[in-house]
Amino acid sequence: MDFLFEGWAAIYLPLAAVLVIFLALWWRDRKRHWLVGAAAVASLIGLYFVLDRAVETDSEQIRRKLAEMGAAIGRKDTKAAFAHFSDQFVWEEMGGMKKAQVELLADRLIKSGVLTDVTITDVRPPDKSGKVVFVAKPRGPNIPHELHYRIKAQFVREPDGQWRLRSFTTHNPVNDDPIEVGRLLEQAQQLR
User: CA–CA separation, 188 vs 153, rounded Å?
Assistant: First the structure.
């Protein structure tokens, strides 16, 4: 029943359309029942808005965590970014690197100035298992502005009820082919 809490436009738009119709009918006829109908629909819109704001769904939590990770990199706060990584995190593309190893690598890239920011965009709604696809745009003084990657990430719900990143793969955004990240990191470290 996530649709009750997601704030989907597919819910707001039909309700808004019905509200406009009721108001137009009231304006035309000046009959009270049209105004009562409009008030009822406006109340439903308000209720839906309150439900959307009151409950953070799994999908909203994953999106929020992705945004927080990107913002933390921009602040050069590696610890804050990696707080959203699971302790079981494994980066298979890099030979099975664990969370601590990846955090050290990211910290080195950030502190050396190679990586100054990561913008997360085009986040597709996660599925029930926590799989999510998004676009990551790394930024740095020598990183081309148009460079971006499609990331296929797996989040996992941990015992504390929080979703955290367990793994991800990096893909070409045009043809979806996997990218050899090791070679990219070697090139990035040479940019210093």
Answer: 22
